[in-house]
């Protein structure tokens, strides 16, 4: 809400939104196609203009992706939010599944790490040059 003498924050083009959000124009357009972002208005020439709230949403999307959320999951979270439903139970469920997936990945990586260490120790016991025969 703006007071007397204050103007609304300027609207941004797709390019400006992408620059301020630290993504490419293609990423912004992909999010638009998926319904993750929405233009506040359009110019007479058909250019989409975005408010600061869409920049905040863009930051949310990028942060959620860094936490391992898929775009489909982010779409669902945003849809819940737009319907004025708390997305918190949904987010908790997604994170619980992510924890299980992450634990399984970590277990596989730890097992691979142990195999690699055993291989290095076994190879360290071998002489540097082993006759390979005729190649």
Automatic annotation (TrEMBL):
Coiled coil location: 92-119
Entries under SMART domains matching the protein: HTH_MERR
Entries under PROSITE patterns matching the protein: HTH_MERR_2
Domain HTH merR-type: 11-80
Domain of life: Bacteria
Keyword Zinc: no
Residue intervals passing through the bilayer: none
Keywords: Coiled coil, DNA-binding, Transcription, Transcription regulation
Protein name: HTH-type transcriptional regulator ZntR
Organism: Novilysobacter luteus
Record gene name: zntR
């Amino acid at each position: 809400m703006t007071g007397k003498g204050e103007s609304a924050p300027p609207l941004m083009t797709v390019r400006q939104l992408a620059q301020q959000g630290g993504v490419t124009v293609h990423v912004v357009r992909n999010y638009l196609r998926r319904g993750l972002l929405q233009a506040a208005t359009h110019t007479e020439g058909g250019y989409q203009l975005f408010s600061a709230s869409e920049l905040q949403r863009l930051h949310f999307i990028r942060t959620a992706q860094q936490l391992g959320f898929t775009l489909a999951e982010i779409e669902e979270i945003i849809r819940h939010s737009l319907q004025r439903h708390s997305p918190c139970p949904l987010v908790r469920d997604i994170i619980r599944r992510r924890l299980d997936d992450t634990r399984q990945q970590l277990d596989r990586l730890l097992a691979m790490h142990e195999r690699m260490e055993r291989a290095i120790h076994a190879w360290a016991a071998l002489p540097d040059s082993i006759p390979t025969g005729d190649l």
